Amino acid sequence: MFFALVFVLTLPLYVLSPLVTLPGMPKNGPPLDFVGAFMPMTAALILTGRSEGRRGVRMLLRRALDFRRIPSRAWILPILLLMPAIYLSTAAVVHLTGLHVPGQPALSLSTMAVFVPVYFLAATGEELGWIGYATEPLWSRFGPVAASLIIGVPWWAWHIPSMLSSDETSLLIALGLFASLALRVIYVWIFGGTGSVAAAIAIHAVTNVSASSVPSVPTNLAAPLLLAVAVAIAVKWTRERRPLPTSSPERS
Question: On the chain, which terminus has fewer CB atoms closer than 10 Å, C or N?
Answer without folding.
Answer: C
